[in-house]
Every structure is written in C-alpha cells, then in structure tokens.
Amino acid sequence: MVLSPSASREGSGRRPGPSRRPRRAWGALLYLLPALVFYGTFTIAPWVQSIWLSFWNWDGIGAATWAGVENYAKVFTDERLVVALRNGLGFIVFYTAFPVALGLIIAAVIAARPRRGSGFVRTVLFLPQILPLVAVGVVWRYLYAADGPVNQLLTAVGLGGIARAWLGDFTWAYPAVGVIGTWVTTGLCMMLLLAGIQKIDPSLYEAARLDRCGPIRQFWHVTVPGVRAEIVVAVTVTLISALASFDIVYVTTGGGPGYQTIVPGVLIYKLVFTSNEVGLACALATVLSAIILVFVTVIGRIGRARP
Questions:
Q1: What CA–CA distance (Å, rounded) separates 197 from 92?
Q2: Phi-psi region at 262: left, alpha or beta (left = phi > 0; alpha = psi -120 to 50)
C-alpha cells in the first residue's frame, strides 16, 4: 500500500495530543508552588485573619467579644479614624500628583536635551529611593527643626518672619510632611517616565516638527500619549505609597501635632500597641485595603481604555 504525499505529511506533522496540555499546566504550577505557598502563608492568611478579627472587640491578650459591624461603624464616625483616612487620601496630592507631574517634566527635558551631567541628575533624583525611609525622616526632622537649615536659610534671605517649627505647627505640619513624600517619590516617577519616553519612535517627533509643533505641543501630543502605560504604573505605585504611608510620618511627627498628620498606618499601629484596640485597628486596615483596591482597579481600567 502506497501512502499519498498528503497522508505522509499528516503522519509526520502529528501534533501533541490534548493529554500533554494538563501535564504542562501541572508542571508550570509546580514551579509556582513555592511562591504561592510563601505568599499565601505570609500575605493572604494574615490578611484574612485581620478581616476576621475586625468583627471582634479584642485587646490582644484576653478573651475577644463579638462586635459585628460596630468597628466598621467607628471607622466612619470616630473623629480620629475619619481624620486619618482624610489625611491619607490628601497625601495622594503630595505622593502622586506632584511627583508624576514633576517627574514627567524633568524626564521630558532630559530626553529632549541630553547633556553632560544628566546621568548625575538622574542619580541625585533617584537617590531617595535607595535610602531607608526612617533615615529620610530623621534627616528631614533635622532640616525642619526650629534652629535647622530651613529656618536658617529663610533668615539669611530676609524671610525670618515666616520661620517656625514646621513639624510642630498645626497649619504647616501636614504640607511639610507632604513635601518629604514628594521628594521621595519624584525620582522614581522620573525614571519610569524617562524609560517610557526613550522608547517613543523619534519619527513621531520629526512629524510633529514638520507640522510646526513647538516643544509644548510635542509634549502634550507625542510625549504624554507615548508614556501612558508608564504614567499608570507610576500613579499606581505612588498612590499605594500615599495611602499606606507610615515610616516618614511616624519618625517626623508621630501623627501630631494633635491629629494634624495622622495617617491610617500610624493610627493602626497606635490602636494595636498603645490603645489595645486590635479589632478596631483591623477594621481600619480592612477599609484601607478596600480603598486601595478600588483605586488600583479604577486606574488599571483607565490605563487599558483606548484614548
């Protein structure tokens, strides 16, 4: 019996049967299993437990009593918790809006006119990202001190009248801490956006110049749309940092003066280790997690939407 050429090709080009696909899936799962176990043990399990504890009144030592949704009601009615959530949301301006805007402008300038020393500028701006936030807080607390460099500089230029103990002032403590957040995250945004700008096709800028577009119009019509994905990443990362901020606030002001700079992270710490209100702290942490999840989901959908 002689096989036709087509039959021989079908026989030689036999595809792997469907039985091999489950094997490949199980093989991939085995590679992911250690990471999944680690993540489930140290992230998912504690998170689920904190949600469960949020429905109880517990001091962390004695017996717990059922509270139902009482703790969640306090999150939205207790003045301390409401102020903490409001301050955390307000930090989005300092941790996200300002750094993304400044980072985009700086990245556009560096990419448009690369000069000697631009590498040094990038290094200096990115330096806060590799410094421990506790050390950052200690340095800025010294800078903001009543006899610190900030007030000395203001006095030297004839503005001694506005010098003050910035971190102890009820009006200026919050923006003073916010400036630290802007300083920390601007370098990260700049590096992310610079990487995005460098992958934009140069022919797009050539076409814009041929259409007599100036630098500002090139920025809005070529650069900004070209780094849309990087903007989404920068906004997501910095927004989470704003809502989950702890180190800088705790080291510089501890949430004071009064509750002017209190944020959810610091208040959760104080509720657990100072007030022994573990259930209330877990409820606040759960609400904070939900807020972050909503923001991240919305930002992700906006990023995936077509312009």
A1: 24
A2: beta
What are 119's two structure tokens?
A: 């590498």
Q: Which two tokens stand for residue 42?
A: 């140290």
Lookup result for tokens 């657990």? 272
Check if the beta carbon of residue 151 is closer than 8 Å to that of residue 164.
yes
* Distance separating alpha carbons of residues 188 and 47, to the nearest angstrom: 28
Residue by residue, pLDDT tens for the chain (307 residues) are 444 555 444 445 555 555 566 677 787 788 888 899 999 999 899 999 999 999 999 988 888 899 989 999 999 999 999 999 999 999 999 999 999 999 999 999 988 877 777 788 888 888 888 899 999 999 999 999 989 999 999 999 988 889 999 999 999 999 999 999 999 999 999 999 999 999 999 898 899 888 888 889 999 999 999 999 999 999 999 999 999 999 999 999 999 898 999 999 999 999 999 989 999 999 999 999 999 999 999 998 888 776 5
Left, alpha or beta for 68 (phi > 0: left; psi -120 to 50: alpha)? left
Domain 91-262 maps to which CATH number in 2.60.40.730, 1.10.3720.10, 1.10.10.60, 2.30.30.230?
Answer: 1.10.3720.10
Residue type, 185: T
Q: Residue 210 has which token pair? A: 């041929």
pTM as predicted:
0.85
* Residue 22, CA distances (Å) to 17, 18, 27, 35 in order: 10, 8, 8, 21
Q: Where are the domains of the chain?
A: 91-262
* Whether the Cβ atoms of residue 269 and residue 252 lie closer than 8 Å to each other: no
